[in-house]
Amino acid sequence: MLLDTNAYLRLAKRIRPLLGVEFGNKKYSLTVLKQVEEEVFKSPRLQFLYPWFADTELNTERMSRQVRLSADERTKIEAAASVLHAYVLDDPHGYTTQGRSPPSPTDCFMLAFGQVRSAIVVTDDLGMHKLANEFGLDIWHGHELLKKMLTAKAITKDLVQDIYAALENNDDLPRTWQEAKHSVFIKLFGPKP
Q1: Do 22 and 29 touch, CB atoms closer than 8 A?
Q2: What is the phi/psi pair of residue 54, to 5°?
Q3: Is residue 70 classed exposed, middle or buried when 0-12, 13-18 and 19+ CB atoms within 10 A define those classes?
Q4: Can you give the pLDDT of all 193 residues of the chain as single tens digits?
Q5: Are 58 and 12 within 8 A, CB to CB?
Q6: pTM for the whole structure
Q7: Residue 149's Cα: distance from chain center in Å?
Q8: What SS3 class is residue 162?
């Protein structure tokens, strides 16, 4: 399973270790691409919001669990990403409704990675979800990953509640997470007030 930047930033501070740990019957394992690293270190805003990203322990974890691509794989992924991005550019306005934004070339690369490597991409980017659904690619929201990890006992109910509380306190709780709070996690949070 591949975490995009927003999914990684929502979970990595609180679930340790996060990357490379198998869980569930299907032996899921989480990873990131170096694009996550590049995106955060190129953005003063992200560096300000997530100062823990440069933590030595997390940096070591990302480096050791980062996917290395062969030249052949990279060529296939770049070709697939080009097709996906051209599709987005053909109708960018279709990606600007319901809180979405058009997937970037990096977003398309991540989806193409999932296509070539048969990996599930985890992101809360609604534009990426729209594009993935149009191409039949496997994609999950961050809360779906959280539910899967909870079911597999890779995390505890208390940790799920802590993550929700932290995201709410940081005003970083996506709409889909809000909806899942009182449906997917109804046993933890109860019905919607």
Answers
A1: yes
A2: -85, 5
A3: exposed
A4: 999 999 999 999 999 999 999 999 999 999 999 999 999 999 999 999 999 999 999 999 999 998 889 999 999 999 999 999 999 999 988 898 887 899 999 999 999 999 999 999 999 999 999 999 999 999 999 999 999 999 999 999 999 999 999 999 999 999 999 999 999 999 999 998 8
A5: yes
A6: 0.95
A7: 14
A8: helix
